[in-house]
Write a structure and sequence with these properties.
heterodimer, A: about 400 residues, alpha+beta, 2 domains, 5-stranded antiparallel beta sheet, 12 helices, B: 6-stranded mixed beta sheet, 4-stranded antiparallel beta sheet, 10 strands, globular
């Protein structure tokens, strides 16, 4: 006689909603925890991208020590002579830089600091403080446009990017950058740009840092190399913010850290989840010993019983994964509505790679669960052995 | 159907105090009929049944089933015999708690064609279960009803032999009587082997084998 029968995996799942519900809920919530943490932390790396990748394509900053220009204070009798020599050399470098292909303009000016805060971390970056009549040219160079308010006309007025306004919860008329320099700059307009740029007019000499603001294009990735080509000696005491330095900073201090944090959290969740599911699953197997013994007694082989357990497990993980994916995407939409948009952040609700990673973790977990499953399958007895006990 | 020769089962083989559950049993069983194996606790009656049904492998001796030696066959061959040729009724019903009465029978069915569900339902009704009971889980059935489901599970593949170990032990008199009636009916065409210590349920048996200390006394 041909034996077509198979032990059904679906019957247990269908008839044990409470136990199955606990296991599926644990899996789904773990899926969601791992996914939501990724979504939240990714707002940091996603939000910093425009600042650290887009902005340096248009503008770079250099704050150089006199030594970089080859000017040594000890070579001059008084400060005035030293300052005159430094200014002359700096003006010469600036004029030379302006002739460099890939550089449109260079302005020596003060900067303010713009602050941008995702869910985790914060970035503070330069907002050039220009003469009022230089701002239009700056906006054109940056590809930014005024969408609300007016251009700065007096000292201490700034234009702020729309998303930064949302992020800081400010509106036209509020103070900008007040934590760093006091209530120095008044927001007079809102701009839209791909690089979250802010620009304003200085409030006298606030000693907030003088920079060579270099209007460059994408061909000028390495400002340090350009300056060295001009005969300057750049050391670690000089500050340069260009595409190359921002890229390094992003990889090391933003993406690197975020990925490490995500990895650490994923590991903790995985270990916790493994223990939780392991305990639940061992209890699940223990409750069904008599059932497995019955199957063995009426002629089912261990392989068939193991196959049924495996199919049940796959079914549970499948339901847990689908449920987890649905609630994760739901939570992602909520995060987008309640966190990303209102706070002017960048982010996505769908990260395919992350979903694949979580699936990988679940597969690993299923692999770990084979240890107790195989141990139980190997201990399956027939009913006569149970009755003898 | 069964030819048993010099069958012995020794427990604690590796110790000095060897325990003989069965001592050199010779036995012949027919193709059909109700055969009772009776004896006190520890006499070896259950061990004999489990050896015949391939659940246990004897220490010595041979068992021929329809002319084929079955003590040395592989695990998968033993499993196949238990799935197709044999049916089991245990002292406790061993029903799967989360399955309905129907599913508890179907789980043992070898054939899963479209007609098997109807056959199972008809079979359960024939054994005295009502339409409503078919979808009930064991916890919602009485002890007698559970044992009927266990009997249906044992019979669903029309096995050539049914092994019943104390099938009425947990039942009241009326239910025990009804179960025995069912088994008696089945034994008109097949072999039903009942192990019990209660002689009263074997009044309709075609043959009674008494076992004492691992040996057949009669």
């Amino acid at each position: 006689m041909k034996m077509k029968t198979r032990l059904s995996a679906w019957k247990y799942v269908k008839n044990n909603k409470r136990v199955v519900g606990v296991l599926v809920t644990s899996l789904a919530l773990s899926f969601m925890a791992m996914y939501v943490i990724h979504v939240l932390l990714s707002t940091t790396s996603e939000s910093f991208r425009p600042v650290m990748f887009e902005m340096p394509k248009h503008i770079s900053y250099a704050s150089l020590t006199p030594k970089a220009f080859g000017i040594n204070r000890d070579d001059y009798e008084n400060y005035e002579e030293f300052e005159t020599a430094l200014n002359e050399k700096r003006d010469e470098v600036i004029e030379n830089l302006k002739k460099h292909p890939g550089i449109d303009n260079v302005i020596l000016t003060q900067v303010a600091l713009s602050h941008y805060q995702p869910v985790v971390g914060e970035i503070a970056y330069e907002a050039p403080l220009l003469e009022a009549d230089q701002i239009r040219d700056f906006l054109d160079h940056m590809g930014a446009k005024l969408v609300d308010g007016r251009m700065p006309e007096c000292d201490g007025e700034v234009l702020v990017d729309t998303k930064l306004m949302k992020n800081a919860g400010t509106k036209i008329g509020d103070w900008f950058s007040e934590g760093m320099y006091g209530e120095t700059f008044r927001i007079v307009g809102v701009i839209e740009s791909s690089s979250r740029i802010c620009v304003g007019t200085p409030m006298g000499n606030t000693n907030s840092g003088w920079y060579m603001v270099v209007y460059n294009d994408e061909s000028t990735m390495d400002l340090k190399a350009v300056l060295e080509a001009e005969g300057l000696t750049i050391t670690e005491q000089d500050t340069i913010y260009d595409s190359l330095s921002y890229k390094k900073m992003y990889e090391k201090d933003v993406d690197g850290v975020i990925q490490d944090v995500i990895l650490a959290i994923s590991l903790v969740v995985t270990i916790f989840l493994s223990l939780l599911v392991l305990v639940a699953y061992v209890s699940f197997l223990r409750d069904r010993v008599s059932e497995y013994c019955l199957y063995a007694s009426i002629g089912y082989g261990r392989a068939e019983i193991y196959g049924m357990i495996l199919r049940e497990m796959v079914l549970l993980f499948l339901i847990g994964t689908v449920s987890g994916l649905i609630i994760s995407l739901g939570a992602g939409i909520l995060i987008e509505e309640l966190v990303i948009w209102p706070r002017g952040l960048e982010g996505s609700i769908f990260y395919g790679e992350r979903i694949l990673t979580i699936l990988g973790i679940f597969l690993l977990l299923m692999g770990i669960l084979q240890i107790p499953v195989l141990a139980y399958v190997n201990r399956i007895k027939t009913v006569d052995m149970i009755e003898e006990q | 159907m069964f030819e048993v020769k010099k069958l012995s089962m020794i427990f604690d083989m590796n110790t000095d105090a060897k325990t003989y559950a069965l001592k050199g049993i010779d036995l012949s069983l027919p193709d059909k009929g109700l055969v009772g194996i009776i004896g006190p606790s520890g006499s070896g009656k259950s061990t004999l049944m489990y050896c015949l049904s391939t659940l246990k492998v004897p220490t010595e001796g041979t068992i021929l089933y329809n002319g084929r030696e079955i003590t040395g066959v592989t695990n998968s061959e033993r499993e196949k015999l238990r799935r197709i040729e044999f049916g089991f009724i245990f002292q406790k019903h061993y029903l799967v708690p989360y399955m309905s009465a129907m599913d508890n029978v179907l789980v043992a069915a070898v054939d899963k064609g479209p007609e098997i569900k109807k056959k199972t339902a008809d079979f359960l009704k024939e054994l005295g279960l009502g339409e409503k009971e078919l979808s009930k889980k064991p916890s919602k059935l009485s002890g007698g009803q559970c044992q009927r489901v266990a009997i249906a599970r044992a019979m669903i593949n029309d096995p050539k032999v049914i092994f019943a170990d104390e099938p009425t032990a947990s039942l009241d008199h009326e239910n025990a009587y009804n179960i025995m009636k069912i088994l008696k009916k089945y034994s008109s065409e097949r072999l039903v082997l009942i192990v019990t210590h209660d002689k009263s349920i074997l009044k309709d048996a075609d043959r009674i084998i008494e076992i004492w200390d691992g040996e057949i006394s009669q």
